[in-house]
Design a protein that fits this description.
The protein is of the alpha/beta class. The chain has helices at 14-30, 51-54, 63-75, 167-175, 189-207, 256-265; strands at residues 2-8, 35-37, 78-80, 84-86, 97-104, 110-115, 121-123, 128-130, 135-136, 143-147, 153-158, 180-182, 210-213, 215-216, 230-233, 239-243, 248-253. 26% of the residues lie in helices and 27% in strands. It is globular and about 50 Å long. The two termini are 33 Å apart.
């Protein structure tokens, strides 16, 4: 199954970001991708964290969800929409939203919704981030199943960015039979340079699973610099393809037989004690 991890440098213009995402997804489909993953915050990197609130949607309605549904259907793709801001069901938390990753089937139906569980906080005296100021934390791991054109059934585990630092989430997916782990992200340049690749490869190796990591990669309108390096990794921890910076499409073929062989020759998942 050919998979595309999309890299963007999203701006403060939703319209421009959506147009760029559509173009990159079109490139992915033209190259034969069956599944494409957009990065976290593909739709907006605002001047302020609170800018997310202005474009938040209710589940099942809104222009961003319509864009994802229409694009999946038009291009015949399984499409995971990075993240978009979704309002909570109740109005009790009107000042905060979920950072949500939605998966759409090639017929445009939303088949899975994952709310980012772990919210990023970082302060090195120069850079300061606290996602909990405007985001609500999710609480449930989410998987979905897709059938590739060659007839294999893939189970896909969903995560977002900072989740990468919490190995127990991915162990939950491995226990649920996941073959592919998704990590659409917007890692800061500082933390990405230090930890991005090693975390992604660790999640692949310890769970004997493929990892697809879409990314933000470049200097944004708000002055934030993201690390980029969108990549696809095999179950043995080998980086199959990556892009260092700037917008583009990262493509690789994921081989189900290779995954099965890795798990057969090193059956570490069956050796777990704790």
């Amino acid at each position: 199954m050919k998979v595309a991890a999309i890299q963007m440098v999203s701006s403060t213009s939703v319209q421009a970001n959506v147009a760029q995402a559509r173009d990159l997804l079109g490139q992915a489909a033209k190259s034969g991708a069956e599944l494409a993953v957009l990065p976290e915050y593909f739709c907006l990197m605002g001047q302020r964290d609170a800018d997310k609130l202005a474009i938040a949607e209710t589940l099942g309605q809104g222009p961003l969800q319509q864009f994802l549904s229409d694009t999946a259907r038009e291009l015949g793709l399984w499409l995971v929409g990075g993240t978009i801001p979704l309002r909570p069901d109740s109005g009790a938390d009107a000042g905060r939203v979920f950072n949500s990753s939605l998966a759409f089937s090639p017929d445009g139906i939303c088949v899975a919704r994952y709310h980012k569980i772990h919210l990023f906080r970082f302060d090195n005296g120069v850079e300061r981030y606290d996602e909990s100021a405007v985001l609500l934390a999710g609480s449930e791991p989410v998987t979905f199943d897709l059938n590739s054109r060659d007839g294999h059934s893939w189970r896909v585990g969903m995560s977002v960015c900072y989740d990468l630092r919490f190995a127990e989430l991915y162990r939950t997916y491995a226990s649920a039979g996941a073959h592919l782990l998704l990590a659409p992200s917007a890692f800061t340049y500082t933390t990405g340079e230090a930890h991005w690749e090693v975390l992604l490869r660790a999640r692949a190796i310890e769970n004997l699973a493929y990892v697809a990591a879409a990314a933000q990669g470049g200097l944004h309108d708000n002055g934030r610099k993201t690390w980029g390096h969108a990549m696809l990794i095999d179950p043995w921890g080998q980086v199959l393809a990556q892009r260092e910076q700037q917008a583009g499409v990262v493509l690789a073929d994921l081989d189900f037989d290779l995954l099965s062989a890795c798990r057969s020759r090193l059956p570490a998942l069956s050796h777990r004690v704790l």
